[in-house]
Amino acid sequence: MRIASFNINGIKARLPRLLEWLEETRPTVACLQEIKTMDEGFPADAFEKIGYSAIWHGQKSFNGVAILADGVAPVEKQRGLGIDGPKEGEGEQARYLEAEVNGVRICNLYLPNGNPHPGPKFDYKLAWMERLRARMAELWVQEIPTVVLGDFNVIPEDKDVWSVRAMANDALMQPESRDAYLRMLGDGWTDAIDTLNPRGGVWTYWDYQAGAWQRDHGFRIDHLLLSPELADRMQAAGVDKEYRGREKASDHTPVWVELAE
Of 88 and 124, which is predicted with more confidence? Predict the structure, then answer.
């Protein structure tokens, strides 16, 4: 069972690349972030044509998450974490979607970026992470086989970035962001990519600017966290790096974990 995450950075703009990746790698479950479309604009028909059923949580122009499953319909369990955005009266942003697929709980997230730091957006990021951790604790107590995955917008350690100095002032690398992420791991969750690549140097994101892709100036912010029930089943985990180099690619590339049935 392969479970993957892909920040697609606009599902309409990247649909050909997304369909290409799905057909070439055929993940059992594919979680998407930054779909950047209202619910009614989601291209569900395109996925159905290649055998994937989908649920999604959209938002106009920003954010948005979706869960696709091969040959089976995802059963939605929760939409959102019940936390309002940083602007007064804004309401909740489309950043979290949870479903059941083949006996596994899939928690797909697009965690707030937090820039500029300091400020209300960074405070929102930290509050959102605390709410996420609380939801993870609820699933932990129920002993549900769970993977929490997506774009966390956190660079966990210095080994996860091409240049510590270049990112030192970014919200992705602030001590508070890192501490919040490490608290999740301290609760007993397993970072799949880090576990199998303990020396680091694995990137999941390369900016469009300054030739970042061509110079391999990237960092790791897309993560897959496994509950103990799934950590015991992990067989492999990796990054589909080549898809970042294709025409009109997302600035992220897919990450995945392979689980024994």
Answer: 124
Q: Is 194 among the annotated ligand-binding positions?
A: no
252 labeled binding residue: yes
Residues with Cβ within 8 Å of residue 119, at least 6 apart in sequence: none
Which H or E element spans position 2? strand 2-7
| Domain boundaries defined on the chain | 2-259
Closest CA to 151 of 81, 80, 221, 219: 221
pLDDT of 28-47, one tens digit each? Answer: 999 999 999 999 999 999 99
CATH class of the domain defined by 2-259: alpha beta
Is 181 one of the annotated active-site residues of the chain? no
Contact 161, 113 (CB under 8 A): no
CA dihedral 240→241→247→250, nearest 10 degrees, is: 80
Question: Residue 76 burial by CB count (10 A; 0-12/13-18/19+): exposed, middle or buried?
Answer: middle
Would you call 217 a catalytic residue per the annotation? no
Kindly report, residue by residue over 189-199, the tens digit of the pLDDT: 999 999 999 99
Helix (H) or strand (E) holding 10: none
Is 108 among the annotated ligand-binding positions? no
